[in-house]
Design goal:
The protein is 21% helix and 26% strand. The protein is an alpha+beta fold and 363 residues long. The chain folds into three domains: 22-134, Coagulation Factor XIII, Chain A, domain 1; 144-190, no CATH class; 211-361, no CATH class. The longest helix has 20 residues, at 2-21.
Length: 363
């Protein structure tokens, strides 16, 4: 935010200096060489594959010192991605502007890259386009049992997960026949990003966290965590290993604990022996059934929102069929964070007013 303000403060002054010297009268895009698509090694490509790391690059030349804003959009069959604006302030010369990205997991067919260079003071705008083709791995689905010959330990641990009943290896890794025939890692999808998980753990477009009857609707972990501040930096696989059961092999299933990053966080009120997720991932999600009454109601699945807002009253967490988001994103209220346990059965009985008075003393 501070950098943005600084840029908008400096840019007009820079332009006025140029105008005074007479240079600004010639500010224009001398040439927009074009747009290219590169692979992770920097080689120009016209064909890509699902989950491949790519780089989009725009090359243009300013005829005189000036300011240019560069932005764009990638569009494929059933998917799109915005290329966020880049600001270039400098002297006459050639500029390269790049965006790092990744082709979606199940993208197919043709994709188009439109990039625009805009010189605001002259209102000059030029757009160039590049095309590339996404070619999926040419293979057939062969079933998870075909994987256990080489990946026996992973296969055995996966059998104990909740995924095993509905999600096979190829749901995440793609069809496996070519990989089995060649043993090549290039013939199988190896994608540790959240794009894999959101195939199942997503509702609507991910931007709204759906709610119903005072609970978060199940199967939208992607909606929840990507709406938080941590969602900008973490992938699902940062914390989770989907090959292991959280219930039966927790040490392997949870790769990072909360204390890995929050090691300086102090804990008071005798809560040192309570797991972080008991409060920050409470059962605010309902899949099958809820229990309790009044402020002690709880669902049957953990939330992935994490942030607790002690000042908020229970009704303020929801607005109609959605979870409320303030300037910091979505939040949990203390009826879930505290009263899920402090109901007189699982822990000492408290009411909402009591936990609201003392909750801020925990951290």
């Amino acid at each position: 935010m501070h950098m943005t303000r600084l840029i908008f403060f400096i840019a007009p002054l820079f332009y006025l200096c140029l105008l005074h010297s007479g240079a600004a009268s010639g500010v224009e895009i001398q040439a927009f060489t074009g747009v290219i698509v590169l692979d992770a090694e920097g080689n120009q490509i016209t064909d890509g594959s699902p989950s491949q790391q790519v780089r989009y690059e725009a090359i243009f030349t300013l005829a005189a010192p000036g300011i240019a804003i560069v932005f764009g959009r990638v569009t494929g069959d059933g998917w799109s991605e915005n290329l966020n604006p880049r600001l270039r302030i400098g002297f006459m010369g050639t500029y390269n502007v790049t965006w790092e990205s990744k082709i979606p997991l199940f993208a197919r067919g043709n994709a188009k890259v439109d990039i625009t260079v805009y010189v605001p003071f002259l209102r000059q705008l030029l757009t160039r386009t590049a095309f590339f083709t996404i070619i999926p791995i040419d293979a057939d689905y062969v079933g998870s049992d075909s994987c256990k010959t080489c990946h026996s330990s992973i296969y055995d641990s996966w059998l104990n997960t909740k995924h095993a009943t509905t999600v096979g290896c190829e749901a995440c890794h793609g069809p496996g026949s070519a990989h089995i025939a060649t043993l090549s890692p290039d013939k199988i999808i190896l994608d540790s990003s959240s794009d894999v998980c959101k195939q199942c753990h997503l509702r609507n477009n991910g931007g709204v966290i759906e709610a119903e009857n005072g609970f978060i609707v199940f199967q939208q972990q992607f909606n929840e965590y990507t709406s938080t501040r941590l969602g900008k930096y973490l992938q699902c696989a940062t914390c989770h290993d989907p090959h292991y059961s959280i219930d039966l092999a927790r040490k392997q299933a949870v790769k990072l604990s909360c204390r890995t990053c929050h090691f300086l966080k102090t804990i008071g009120l005798g809560m040192q022996f309570v797991k972080c997720e008991s409060c920050h991932m409470p059962p605010a999600v309902k899949k099958y059934a809820s229990t309790g009454i009044g402020p002690y109601r709880k669902g049957d699945m953990a939330s992935h929102i994490w942030r607790i807002k002690p000042a908020a009253q229970p009704p303020q967490m929801f607005f109609g069929p959605a979870v409320v988001k303030d300037a910091k994103g979505p939040f949990l209220t203390l009826d879930f964070a505290c009263l899920s346990c402090h109901n007189g059965l699982d822990s000492r009985l408290y009411d909402f007013a009591s936990v609201q008075q003392t909750s801020t003393l925990v951290h």
